[in-house]
Amino acid sequence: MIARDISGAKPIDAAGLANFDEAKRGSPWVLYDAKEVVGTDVGIETKRRRGSTQTVFVLVPVQDKWLIVQRGVGDSGKKLEGQIVTYNSGLEKEAVEKVQAKHPDKKGKFLAYQMDATGGGAAFGPIVILIVTVGMILFGLGCALYGFVSRPRPRRRRFGEA
To answer: Can you say whether the dihedral through the CA atoms of 51, 47, 116, 101 is positive or negative?
Structure first.
């Protein structure tokens, strides 16, 4: 998974996006240059210790269908980079249902999957986890080696010595 994501987002055209199959492509991380981005008034605000994250949902025409894309509030432009996902639960699923309900004229024309274009680099998370794990393993091995090398040696005494 990490090697796949390190290579970066793969450019995809409208035909490839309309008939997306992760098994054939190998990576759900894609780069799509949309011809049009239609805003919706549906969004999510997630509050955390270090502030909050706000995202909005937009519609992107893909051939004769529509793709629902989640992106950051401040994001603009028509180049979309993110992962192809299917929101099956949580706030994202509710937001997708709201977008579909607010656009009844497009009913039956939505793609079965969505795009999450909120994260910067999709490979950043797995790489950090890998680096931290390797660092902890090396630190543990170093501590064990130091313990074996610096342990006190038993002192041999001759019989009768004090």
So the answer is: negative
- CB 40 within 8 Å of CB 102: yes
Please name which of 105, 32, 102, 104 lies closest in space to residue 67, comparing C-alpha atoms: 32
- Token pair of 26 as six digits: 């190998």
- pTM higher than 0.70: no
Within a 10 A sphere around the Cβ of 106, how many other Cβ atoms?
15
pLDDT bin (cut points 50, 70, 90) of residue 29 is confident
Domain 2-122 coded CATH 3.40.91: no
Per-residue pLDDT tens over the stretch 35-65: 888 888 888 887 777 777 788 888 998 988 8
